[in-house]
Amino acid sequence: MKSVVVRFPGSNCDEDMFYALQELGLNPSFVSAQSDISLADYDAIFLPGGFSYGDYLRTGAIARFSPIMQAVQAAADNGQLVVGICNGFQILTESGLLPGQLMMNEVPGFICDETLLQVEQAESAFTNAYTTDEILIPVAHADGRYYADEQTLADLESNHQIVFKYTSNLNGSEDMIAGITNKQGNVLGMMPHPERAVDPLIGNTDGQNFFKSILATVATQGVN
Amino acid sequence: MYLAKIKVTYKPSVLDPQGEVIKSALHRLDYETVEQVIQGKYFEVRLSADSLAAANGLVESMTEALLINQNTETYNYTVEEVEA
Description:
The complex is a heterodimer of chains A (224) and B (84).
Chain A: E1 3-7, H1 14-23, E2 28-32, E3 44-47, H2 68-77, E4 81-85, H3 87-94, E5 101-103, E6 111-119, E7 134-141, E8 145-147, H4 150-158, E9 162-166, E10 177-181, E11 187-190, H5 208-221
Parallel strand pairs in A: 1-2, 1-3, 3-4, 4-11
Antiparallel strand pairs in A: 5-8, 6-7, 6-9, 9-10, 10-11
Chain B: E1 2-10, H1 17-28, E2 41-47, H2 52-67, E3 73-81
Antiparallel strand pairs in B: 1-2, 1-3
């Protein structure tokens, strides 16, 4: 298994993500968003949280045109796993790899907290190791309100693309959506931060099974 | 040289939390007759083009490529010829 964390100018959860991936055996390396290389060798590609390009214009709007995003698109088309956490999720929606958009929280302001998530899809590539359907995961965002039109929301539901929901109204997201996949199920975006809940020292390890799920998926599908 | 002035707003169906907060603040300042506030974005872009029609085309394509997210935003614009 080989994974890679994409560093955008303004990423600030890249080290946390790298640490989590290393601790849980996903064998990570870093790549710069400015590099124009292939990502074909990696089983899983992670777009971390932060404020890429200062979040100027809209969150993720500038980052989606980074040179590396062509390789991310190719990897997604190729069936490799692509994960966007927080700002990474915003970049994936702006780039069209995931439907909808992340918008300013219903009540404007930055939410820094832990929140209960309902695991809606127990068999997904990103959740198959979870043995409970409620998990506690940190959140930290000001623009986390998931929005999509009614047809898109209906499609997400009927295609089983909604992987995580908040258990109460955190930020005004449609259908309390916290994380979704693409139709093929290999690209996931979520606003909460599983990488911040892997070390027992912190007091919450509910994020571990997120990464163990990815390990299990790669072991089964085996790109490398 | 052409000058484009582009106004971007949310589609009417999309919640505008900043507009709502500003409306509440205006009510607290006793502007009680305020019924709605919409906060948008405004861009001025100077560009060269072969003709006004070409400038219009460029403005539309760059706005749809980057300045707006078509899921939630809509825009209108004007283009005028200005001195270089």
